[in-house]
Write a structure and sequence with these properties.
Largest sheet of chain B: 7 strands, mixed
Number of helices of chain B: 0
Helix content of chain B: under 10%
Oligomer: heterodimer
Number of helices of chain A: 0
Structural class of chain A: mainly beta
Structural class of chain B: mainly beta
Radius of gyration of chain A: 13 Å
Number of strands of chain B: 11
Shape of chain A: globular
Distance between the termini of chain B: 36 Å
Order of helices and strands of chain A: EEEEEEEEEEE
Chain lengths: 112, 114
């Protein structure tokens, strides 16, 4: 059974810092891995999706990498801003393309 | 563009009451999903529907039923609510497989069972 973990559970950084969020999964047989942002009391917004055949994806200040062999994905946020404060979740999709397994999330606070 | 919509936004039920959570998407997506989110546990899949007319159990289906009414709508029913079903419920949809199954989420329904 796939298990997804995220470290750290919470992170507080000053504005302008570059930071890395980690996501680990136990079963490397995944179809894709997706990173989401969740603001308090809101739904999830998709940030980046990495197909199993890809190594990384970039969108603006965000870069996500995928290493299937080690069961890891990282989300890199450059030049963090207070508006980046939110919970970040990763989710791995199984090879049948139906079952997403989510990590518990990392709660990020960027201090002005 | 509405995307994925859910009703109601909030609901309080007494133990044993029943209710249906509604979800609709206007993106012509084939697949739809219901999740629950509990503190510290991430999202867990309750049921999903790969296409109109099909439904399958996810990780935590006990106590729930679903209906894929048509391509747009996917409802979640609690027949006899229990306090353990207090949670935030999210509906999601995704396009056909060539798009990589990227998921789009609704705003959620916050359910409290007393």
């Amino acid at each position: 059974k796939q298990e997804v973990t995220q470290i750290p559970a919470a992170l507080s950084v000053p504005e302008g810092e570059n930071l890395v969020l980690n996501c680990s999964f136990t079963d490397s047989a995944i179809y894709n891995l997706q990173w989401f942002r969740q603001d308090p009391g809101k739904g999830l917004t998709s940030l980046l999706l990495i197909q199993s055949s890809q190594r990384e994806q970039t969108s603006g200040r965000l870069n996500a990498s995928l290493d299937k062999s080690s069961g890891r994905s990282t989300l890199y946020i450059a030049a963090s801003q207070p508006g980046d404060s939110a919970t970040y979740l990763c989710a791995a999709l199984d090879n049948y393309g139906q079952n997403f397994v989510f990590g518990p999330g990392t709660r990020l606070s960027v201090l002005p | 563009n509405a995307g994925v919509t859910q009703t109601p936004k909030f609901q309080v039920l007494k133990t044993g009451q029943s209710m249906t959570l509604q979800c609709a998407q206007d993106m012509n997506h084939n697949s739809m999903y219901w999740y629950r989110q509990d503190p510290g546990m991430g999202l867990r899949l309750i049921y999903y529907s790969a296409s109109e007319g099909t439904t399958d159990k996810g990780e935590v289906p006990n106590g729930y039923n679903v209906s894929r009414l048509n391509k747009r709508e996917f409802s979640l029913r609690l027949e006899s609510a229990a306090p353990s079903q207090t949670s935030v419920y999210f509906c999601a949809s995704s396009p056909p497989g060539t798009g990589g199954y990227e998921q789009y989420f609704g705003p959620g329904t916050r359910l409290t069972v007393t």
